Amino acid sequence: MTALLFSVFLIGLLIGIPIAFAIAIAAVAVLLRGDVNLLIVVQRMFAATDSFPLIAVPFFILAGDLLARGAISVKLVTFAEALLGRIRGGLSVVSVVAGMFFAAISGSGAATTAAVGATLIPELKKRGYKEDSSTALIASAGCIGVVIPPSVPMVLYAVIADQSVTQLFKNGFLPGIMMGGILVAISLRQAYKYNYPMGTQFSWKNLWRTFKEAIWGLLMPMIILGGIFSGYFTPSEAAAVAVVYSMLVSMFLYRDLTLKEIGKIMLGSARTSAIIMIIISCSGVFGWVLANWKIPEAVAQGILSISTNKFVILFLISIIILIAGVFMETSSAVILLTPVFLPLMRTLGVNLVHFGIIFTVGISIGMVTPPVAINLFVGSSITGMPIEKIAKAVLPYLFGLIAMFLLYIYLPILIPGLIF
Q: Which of 28, 53, 163, 328 might form a disulfide with 333, Cβ 3.0–4.6 angstroms?
C-alpha cells in the first residue's frame, strides 16, 4: 500500500496534475485497493479543514498582500538604508535587513521578495551592483519571510502536529536571524570582491525622519506578536488584527490604497487561500490512509533500520526536507510530509516544536532551489532576467543557507535551552 500510495502521487506530479488532486487520487487508489467505503473521502476532507487555528492562514496571507502592495514596504526599505547604507555594499545589507523587517510583517516568502525586490532592485542596478547577484540575494532573503513569525507554514505544522502556534512563533526568531546573518556575511564578501560603492553619509536627522515614516510598519510586528506572546489574543485573532491594521495604515495614514485596489488584493488572497485549503482538505484523506495502513510507522522502522543515532537520522531527514523543497511548494510539503515524520520524531524523543522549526527552515530554502523556486520566479518577473541566470547567481547564498540549516538542526540539541 505504501508503494502504491507514493507511486501514484509521484506519477501525478510528473504528468502535471495539481498537487491537491495528485494527493487525493493517490489516497483514493489505496482506498479502492483496500475495498474501503469512499464516503470516507468526503468525511476526511471536511474534517481536515474543521480547525480554528486554520482561520489564521487566509488572514495572514491577506495582511501580507496588503503590505506588499502598499507603501509600508518602501518606508521600511528607506529606513533600513538610512540605518545601514553607509558601509561598502551597504545596499546589499539593506536588502537582507529589509527582508527581515518585512518577514516580521507578512509571513510570506514570495510577498517579502516582491515587496523588497520591487523597491530595491532598480536602485541596486543604478548604483552599479550586479543585477543577477542582487536579485538572487533578495530572493534568498525572501526565504526568511516564512521563518520569522508570523509564518503560514508554522501555523499549518502546528495544526497537523497538534503543537502550540505561539511556541513555534517564539522559536522562529533565532533561525531567522541566523539566516539573515549568513546572507549579510556573504553579501559583504561579494561587495568587497566586486568593489561595490559605499552608501550615503550617515545622518541622525535622516535616520529620525525615515524612522518616523516607517514607524507604522515597525509597530505591526510589535502589536501582533506582542499580543500573542502576552496572551491578549490567539494567533488566529492576531491574524485578523493584522488585516485590520494593514487596511487602516494603507487607507488612512499612507493613503496609498483605494477600496477598489483592496478589493482586487482580497480576490488574489482568496485564490491563494483556496489553493492552500483544498490541499489541506485532500491531505486529510491522505493522512487517514497513512494512519489506517500504519505507513508512518513503516517509514520510521525503515529509517531506524539504517541507524538509531538521533544525529544521523536528523541529518537524513534534513536531506529529505531539502529535496522535497526542490519539487514542492512550501505549504504543500508541510501538509504532506508532517504526518509521515511525526511518529519517527516521537520515537527519537525529538522536541516537536524544534522539528517544526527545522521543517520550516528546510522547506523555505526550496524557495530559491529550482525548479519550484517561487522566489526566483518573483525576482525574474521584476527584473525580466532569465531564471537560469538568477539560479546561477543564487548558489553562494543557497550554500550559506544550507550550512546554517544544518547548524541549527543540532544547536538546540546541544544547547537545550534554545527551545522554549
A: 328
